[in-house]
Amino acid sequence: MKDCLLFLISILCISGISTAQLCTGSKGDPIINITFGTTQQPISTSKTNLTYVRSCPYDTSSYTIQNLIFGCGETPSAKSWHMLAGDHTKDLNGQYMLVNASWAQGVTHPLQVIYRDTATGLCSNTTYEFSAWLANPMSNLACDGKPLLTNIRFTVTSLKGDTIATATTGPLPVRDGKIWQKNGVAFSLPSNVDALVVTVSMDPERGCGNAIVVDDITLVMCGPSVMATLDDKTEPANVCADYKDPFLLKASYSPGFNDPMVQWQSSLDSGKKWSDMPGINTTSYKIPRRTSGTIVYRMAVAERANISSLNCRVVSNPIYTEIHPVPPHNPPKNVIGCISKDLRLPEANLTSLKNEWSGPNGFSSTDPKAIVSNISSADTGMYLLKQVYYFGCTTLDTFNLKVFPSTTISTRTLYGVCQGQTIQLSASGTGTFKWTPATGLSSDVVANPVITPKDSAMYKVVVTNNFGCKDSADVTINVFRKPVAAAGIEHTIVAGDTVKLMGFTGGTAII
Asked: What separation in angstroms does the CA of 503 have from each of 444, 483, 487, 488, 500?
């Protein structure tokens, strides 16, 4: 009874039959863990004495392994059981075991073993829990509204057959659907016993009913509560690779072990496989700094003599850590500003959550497309862009603005020309010129190129001074098609008849 009191666990500590009781506190990794997989496969006949069927278990003392089944009942015509969709843990394609244990007069009726297994490598004087998740598949219409309710028994024996613990669920009630509940028995393993046999069974009454759904049959060690934190928090830690605060793991456990020892563990696959961290055996651990990757941590506790046995220790809650890379940033860059013009600063990263611009002459902005308006010489200097991302990542980009005299372009923006005629475009300003597109122009780098356009078009002209300041304008050329007229084909008719003439005209703005 000592373990029961110290662990604050209500368990069955003597032999005999009792209502099932479970552990509280922390547990170890499953020693036996029967989930029934993700495919329909029968259980080994050494582990059950029920008969496997591939669909609804209408026959007495039969079972099936399913993920989704409906239309079942005590007989093929009854169809009075619930639709059973998904397993207890909601695993993808996860299966469960559906049992029909009803039996009739004249049928030989042995104890119906739902599942039986053997566990070795255990530790004496240690508390374990043997449990399963159960659900009643029958609706209130089953067996004319009076189904026999299932009473499941959990039994733990030594390899020699000595009973260590046993408990029953009591009749599992009919509910409005498949409602999972956990049942089982917690027990202390006697001295000099390191192996046992666990059995989930039932001894149903004769008659209609006795159906049960079973999933996640487990045997685990249980003991004192163990709690782990990272920087005094239990939440997942997602940080940027440039994080400043240290990662400090701490763990505590409640009384219950005579001579406790701890062992930190890590997992590189989000908790599927755990490895002991050699030499990390204190309740606090400073995680070495790293710049990438995901690692999950937890702490195991056991009696010092048992710490190397995976079946004899309990573990804390897992602590998830992930280091996210720092987003790339721009190297220092020079930008040119032109007096009296607006300058559009380099655009912020679209994935950033927050942008903070600062610069000379009191400039500040949170716009990802920030603009310095009507530039003057006072705007010369260094501009800083701080960008904030998820997980606390930040980047700081610098841009050095140099201010120069600007240039202004002057040009006629609209030209009209008849088809086939030549026209000279005209632009003025201080600097060099560039026309785009160059198609049809006598030159694309002079102020006044000549063009004989075939179709209406739009051109852009840019002037750039010696300091790199630019100005631009758009020029539209409208080409007017020459007028065309035709009377159509000739017709010969008899006097007095009529004919429709098919004349047409073409060109631009024909009246």
From this structure: 43, 14, 4, 5, 9
How far apart are alpha carbons 3 and 255 in whole angstroms?
A: 10
In angstroms, how far is the first alpha carbon of the chain from the final one? 112
In this structure, what are the phi and psi dihedrals at residue 112, rounded to the nearest 5 degrees?
-90, 110
Each residue's pLDDT expressed in tens, for the chain with a length of 511 residues: 334 333 333 333 333 344 457 998 999 999 999 999 999 999 999 999 999 999 999 878 899 999 999 999 988 889 999 999 999 999 999 999 999 988 755 555 678 999 999 999 999 999 999 999 999 999 999 999 999 999 999 999 999 999 999 999 999 999 999 999 999 999 999 999 999 999 999 988 888 899 999 999 999 999 999 999 999 999 999 999 988 888 999 999 999 999 999 999 999 999 999 999 999 999 999 999 999 999 999 999 999 999 999 999 999 999 999 999 999 888 999 999 999 999 999 999 988 999 999 999 999 999 999 999 999 999 999 999 999 999 989 999 999 999 999 999 999 999 999 988 999 999 999 999 999 999 999 999 999 999 999 899 999 999 999 999 999 999 999 998 877 767 677 777 777 778 787 766 665 555 5
Structure tokens at 415: 């030209």
Does residue 437 have a cis peptide bond before it, meaning omega lies within 30 degrees of 0? yes
Please tell me the distance from the alpha carbon of residue 321 to that of residue 39, in angstroms, as a whole number: 33
pTM of the complete model: 0.73
Tell me how many helices (H) and strands (E) the chain has: 1, 40
DSSP, residue by residue, 129-189: EEEEEEE--B-TTGGGG-PBPP-EEEEEE-TT--EEEEEE--PPPP-SS---EEEEEEEEP
Taking residue 12's Cβ as centre, other Cβ atoms within 10 Å add up to: 22
Amino acid found at 355: N
